[in-house]
Amino acid sequence: MRMNILFNKKPVTVNFVGTDHKLIPSLINALRYNKFTTMNLVHSLESVDLFSSEAILYAKDGNKARIPIF
Hints:
Distance between the termini: 21 Å
Radius of gyration: 11 Å
Strand content: 35-45%
Number of helices: 2
Mean pLDDT: 89
Strand order of the largest sheet: 1-2-3-4-5
Oligomer: single chain
Structural class: alpha+beta
């Protein structure tokens, strides 16, 4: 399943892998407060693979990062 969310006023595609839309608030919270990861990807964040306990962030320049979801 796939859905688009707005993060920093930009659309970001979220791919659900073994989970559902109930983790979207946790994902947005993690994106806001994980400073180290998001300061490198915040302007170029393109898509997210959302798992039940983590998210893999993909940037337009090919970089990717993992952040925990609580």
